Amino acid sequence: MFPATKKRERERFEKKWEAFLESDFCNRDIFKREGDYLIYHSEQLIPMKLDNSPPLLLVLGNPASHSVKEGMFFSFEGDKKEHRFWKHILQPAGILDLPYDKKLSVSALNKHRKNQLLNLDYKSTFRIGLCVFISIPSAPSGPWSGIAGIQKLIGATAMRRLEAEESLRVIECAKKFLAPNGIAVAFQKNAWNALRSSKDREYKLGLAKDGKLKGRLKEMTNVLLLGVPPTRLSGPCSKMLRQLLKVPEVSNIAFLTGLIAGMHTRR
After folding, report:
1. Tens digit of each residue's pLDDT (9 = 90 or more) over 193-225
2. HEC profile for the chain?
3. pLDDT tens for residues 43-71?
4. How far out from the chain centre does Cα 175 lie?
5. Alpha-carbon dihedral of residues 60, 47, 162, 216, nearest 10 degrees?
6. How far apart are CA 58 and CA 131, in angstroms?
7. Which one, of 228, 58, 74, lies nearest residue 127 by Cα?
8. According to the 3-state scheme, what is the secondary structure of 92-123?
9. Which of 41, 43, 109, 229 has the lowest tally of Cβ within 10 angstroms?
10. What structural domains does the chain harbor?
């Protein structure tokens, strides 16, 4: 977790560890300590199946602990209600329509949704993959939530080291999934700042809300990178997804895909 030369960082981590672990009832099921190693489960959902649709990689902040335990991104929120990501962000934006039986239990719905995404069994212009920028899970709310909660646990300096390593992982994923004509969307500040090219502006929430975070993915300048508001702001997030996906680069890809594939509906 920490180099031997970072004794103080390790000591601060140890003082905070139990509080972090207790912040979500799922944490004890997904985290394990072995000597100097912190071992944990995380999430990534990249379909191996191919079609003629342009790939779209959705880069989220970090996983919610309960979603990791459930085995599916945005498994539920609140009192096990369907997460806003699916019904208030992606669907209204015209990005993804995942039809399902509303009588399904949360567990059955998560399994069904994962199979739909892996098998391309949905309505979309795109072939969609999901990954996280920071792989360490945390509680969905409270003092240890989100990427801010991870930084609180490990410290700002360690966080910068972690971001550098996580960036390599995400870029490697993008190289395999997005080449040659894909698009990446960053839903979080740290993700945008770490993955943008050196010529692109730094993240500001106002820019994200105004649809002005448009750039290129680091090391993959042929891949468009879009920055949108975080998922907690479901209205602005969905609105910017809808507008940003109408920029010329995206519209041209969608148009060409339509000519080739007839804008088919996957079934």
Report:
1. 999 999 999 999 999 999 999 999 999 989 999
2. CCCCCCHHHHHHHHHHHHHHHCCCCCHHHHEEEECCEEEECCCCECCCCCCCCCEEEEEECCCEHHHHHHCCCCCCECCCECCHHHHHHHHHHCCCECCCCCCCCHHHHHHHHHHHHHCCCCECCCEEEEEECCCCCECCCCCCCHHHHHHHHHCHHHHHHHHHHHHHHHHHHHHHHCCCCCEEEECCHHHHHHHECCCCCCCCHHHHHCCCCEEEECCEEEEEEEECCCCCCHHHHHHHHHHHCCCHHHHHHHHHHHHHHCCCCCC
3. 999 999 998 888 999 999 999 999 999 99
4. 16
5. -70
6. 6
7. 58
8. HHCCCECCCCCCCCHHHHHHHHHHHHHCCCCE
9. 41
10. 55-136+156-261 (3.40.470.10)
Query: pTM for the whole thing?
Result: 0.90
